[in-house]
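Check out one such.
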Amino acid sequence: MEKAKPKHALVMVLGDLGRSPRMQYHALSLLEHGHYVSLVGYAGEGLIPPLQNALATSTSPEIGEASCSFRGHLHVLRMDPYQPPRNNILCRILYYPLRLASLLYCVIYTLWVQFNHTTHTELPVDIILVQNPPSVPTLLLAYIFCIWNGILRRHRPRFVIDWHNLGHTMFDLPNSQASFLRKTSQKSLRAFVKVYEYTMASLADAHLCVTQAMEGWLGENFGVHGRHVRVVYDKPPLLFCPTRVEEQHELCRRLNLEDQEGVSQWMYNMEQEQSQAQPDFTEKTLFTQAVTKNGEITSVELRCNRPALLVSSTSWTPDEDFSILLEALDILQSKVQRNLSAVTQQNVLSFPRVLVLVTGKGPQKDQYVPLLDEFNRTHPSIKIFTLWLEAVDYPKLLGCATLGISLHTSTSGLDLPMKVLDMFGCQVPVCAIGFDCVAELVKDGVNGRIFQNGDELANQLFDLLKGYPNEEGGGSELEKYKLNIRGMKRWKENWEESAQDLIVGE
């Protein structure tokens, strides 16, 4: 069979490229199949390691054989749009016009000026793959770019929309206490964006949807259906996998969690609990210990009384109510203490210390930090800390976790949290808050649990963590969930089966 001719794909997202994993995975899959990729988005966080290595300017020593085959086939164009202030009424009135003007300038300058100076390929653009949302002005300008190329270069690119969510639902509905003017303006803006999305949807050559619910909604409301519409579920790439104990030890050393407030006391108590004869350990973390022989590390093992590690990745936005997790942990602490006081010597409750690590950045983080500090001062056996990790360390942390927590709800009720897929890739069960289509991903009692409020989450955590880590294997619920997660389809296979032909075309 003759090898397909390489094409040039423009992958575009009006957001931080480093925080747009699905679009990065699209770019990586296109590169792996011999195509050239121009990746356009905001400046910000770094790319995933395989894409970073694919850049012609990369000096990374981690480039393997697979990466070398497409090194230099990727070009990245970063935008830095103006963010207007919103600190007074005049600024709030002018915010959307100024923001729109800034976005128009950035996208037009990037596509019509900077893009003409890309050096990684002389091929014309064959495909424009755009993330939605944001819808305005991305979809319109991407379509105009297609038409412009078709007229002036007689080569019209294929216009593909990847529906992560609905753009108009990102604009909040006014609350009942808002003024008449505010209610009218918000409703009008939301209605305008919905009509805009409807119009642009009809102009696209193909559509990718993150859920079956999204595919059904587009067909019913936007008239988008047929062979050019397809569900492409998020799946974890191979870099998300369980972390080897040696890597866990190295990561824990670098994170240095033992210096956090309250954790040093945990370390002391853990030493007192290990009364049995132990080999010499030169390095100890909360979770691991290194065995030495003749002054050299010979092996690393997990500590038998290590805490349970809960990981939650959040964007610190209103659609992820972090107070639910704080409420659940508070209830969990009280529940553990009540049960400890009730057990007898013949029926001893074994419940671990619980460390919760929250990754991510977002607008509401600062308001929660004081609440977390207060929580840590009043809860001796549960601690919660925030941290931000490099792209290469995030999968390693997930691979160390006992359990994942997802607080993501959807503005449309039609998208799914990709962070849950990352956790599943690392064989970590997840407790996820319930919303309309979450059951397409988290099967309650099969690969995790679904909760509706803090009280339900607290009960689930108590049941799942009781006996950990002594009952980690065998017939524990956590182990059953892990077994059900193993062998799940990965991004590469899923993309080849569901997305490749729709994006690339005939």
Remarks:
- Residues 54 and 71 are 4 Å apart (CA to CA).
- The radius of gyration is 25 Å.
- The chain is about 40% helix and 15% strand.
- The longest strand covers residues 8-16.
